[in-house]
Amino acid sequence: MEKRSAALAVMEGALPHVAFDGWSVPALEHGARAAGFGPEILVRLFPGGPLDALDLWLRDADRRMEEAYAALTPPPHKIRERIAALIRLRLEAYAPHKEAVRRALAACALPWHAHRGVAALARTVDAMWHAAGDAATDFNWYTKRALLAAVYSSTVLYWLNDRSADHADTWAFLDRRIDNVMQIGRSKQALKETFYKAVRR
Length: 201
What we know:
globular, mainly alpha
């Protein structure tokens, strides 16, 4: 078995234990045994420790999200529908492992791991915009990603505590957050047009 496949197998086997042990060596040892390996393989697969396993999980979730979105038939048309679909696909894939997500947020909230959390969020948001067909290269590139990061992060936090059937409350919350962002975009455009009219006088 090649290294990445082995690492994914260990990570998948560890997920049920992350809920109790966090992203830790004991959780990964459980994962190694579940995948048919001894604990000594962990140093080779995750030289940076448990946070390497978390990083692999998040990157794999990005990949799965993009593949699931590409398979949607018919694909969403409007940009807000594309973004809503991507966030929903991401969270639905996480649904069996809510506690692992909660533990991931706790790990990334530690000051010495914060850079990993920021980098992971940036990758996910970039993957979402890429899948949605965004090709902006101007300053809007940064604005769009900052706004989507806020929408996605707040939706994840809401979802973690949502006990409604099929997470219906989360999807309603997501729609409201996207509405808020769309209103910000319209306000910015109106302000820009007012400025242009003023300078042309």
